[in-house]
Amino acid sequence: MTNEVKGQVMQTIATLLTTAFGLIAALAWNEAIKALITTFVGKGSDLMGLLIYAIIITIIAVVATLLIARAIPAPEEVQLVKIVE
């Protein structure tokens, strides 16, 4: 029982660390994309830059979600079998 709890704790810690690194990477990309948009749109049009940023991020999120969904195989259908005695 103790090994099972220890395994669950280690798995939870690994998940938390992975999520934390994912968040850090997302924040880094956030700043990079903002800087890129500021370069092309200019500093004076903050609202327009934010709208362009939101649209770009939304498109990237939708495309990434579709690609991830296609990469994961669909679960196999379970067929129920009736056992007759």
Jot down its keywords:
85 residues; mainly alpha; 2 helices
Plain-language structure description:
With 85 residues, this protein is mainly α. It is 78% helix and 0% strand. It has two helices and no strands. The chain has helices at 2-41, 46-71. Helix 1 packs across helix 2. The relative contact order is 0.05. The model has no long low-confidence stretch (mean pLDDT 82).
The tally of strands reads: 0
Name the helicity range. Answer: over 70%
- In whole angstroms, the N-to-C terminal distance is 38 Å
Question: How is the main sheet built?
Answer: none
Shape assignment? elongated
Structural class: mainly alpha
The topology string of helices and strands comes to HH
Strand content range:
under 5%
Count of runs of 4 or more consecutive helical residues: 2
Query: How much is the radius of gyration in Å?
Result: 22 Å
Uncertain stretches of 5 or more adjacent residues: none
**What number is the mean pLDDT?**
82
SSE blueprint:
Layout: H1 2-41, H2 46-71
Helix pairs in contact: 1-2
What can be said about this structure in brief?
By secondary structure, the protein is mainly α.
